[in-house]
Amino acid sequence: MGFRKSYILDYRVVVKPDKRLGNNKLCFVAYCPTLGVADDGDSVQEALANIRKTITFHMECLQKEGREIPIDKPEEELVTNTRFQFSFGPTIRFAT
After folding, report:
1. Residue 39: which residues within 8 A CB-CB, separation 6 or more?
2. Which entry of 29, 40, 50, 61 is 20 to 30 Å from 18 by CA?
3. H-helix or E-strand containing 29?
4. Which domain of life does this protein belong to (predicted)?
5. How confident is the model at residue 1 (pLDDT cuts 50, 70, 90)?
6. Global pTM?
7. For residue range 19-52, what is the model confidence (pLDDT) as tens digits?
């Protein structure tokens, strides 16, 4: 068996409240934009624990396929909001 080196990698994760399909029960979705993977949980803590497992699995798959491991570079990105005007018809419904 070959030598294995361990790395500590940091990835941004966005956690948002959501509702489960079918029962509308509150849940939380954790999304890692750099890797393009997501997972969920009944609490923020559970969603974070699940996304760590998903990230680990994703890394294992990338390594097995001989693909490069993406590195999160938040200093190269700009996260902002934008405002725009749009005319809606009389039956518009906004999500809550």
Report:
1. 29, 30, 47, 50, 51, 53, 54
2. 61
3. strand 26-32
4. Bacteria
5. low
6. 0.80
7. 999 999 999 999 999 999 999 999 999 999 999 9
11 neighbors 72 (Cβ within 8 angstroms): yes
Place of tokens 């509702």: 19
Q: What angle do CA 94, 45, 43 make, to 5 degrees?
A: 45
**Spatial distance between the Cα atoms of 29 and 43, rounded to a whole number of angstroms:** 9
Tokens of 36: 């393009």
> Structure tokens of 23?
């029962």
Closest CA to 29 of 20, 44, 40: 40
32-37 long-range Cβ contacts below 8 angstroms, 24+ apart? 34/70, 34/71, 34/72, 34/73, 35/11, 35/70
Q: Which two tokens stand for residue 50?
A: 């699940």
Provide the H-helix boundaries in the chain.
44-64
